[in-house]
Model the fold of this input.
Amino acid sequence: MQSGPKSRTSSSRNINATVRDNVKRISRKCSQISENQDYVQGSVFGPLLFVMYTTPLSTLISSCSLNHHLNEDDTQLFLSFLPTHLDSSIDHLHNALDRISSWITANLLTLNSPKTEFRLIGLSKQLPKINNSSLTTTHSARNLGFIFDEHLTFSDQISSVSKPCY
Done:
């Protein structure tokens, strides 16, 4: 048996093709079900339909060379860069966001602009090197109930947790 880059690539293509075929088959079945009868929100179809609906978004984000995390109605994008590459990284992020916004619109979804945040995380010595007045960043933001601040000191999280104790 051949074991090299070619065999891994062809088996990867076969797996991707199989997954794609299965998703199409399931999608057709779900379309038939949803045409014939309603299904209750929170049913067993919910997670399956969510994965089927967001897989193209995940693929699009990956094609933009961004790391990401999809969680229910929340999508988080991650981009790591050196302070010296800020301008090109911001341009890259803007282009990716334009493509994502187009996908969202084409798929009848909406972007909740008031809840959209941009946060830079870095060392105390790194963040002052980033001098871009066009960026509006947040000092801290909540992620799955945990508060992250720009220096990862967790001071906002500690204050939030200890506040009820006083």
In short: The chain has a mean pLDDT of 75. The beta strands are 67-71, 74-78, 140-143, 146-149. The chain has three domains: 1-36, 39-70+86-111, 117-166. The radius of gyration is 21 Å.
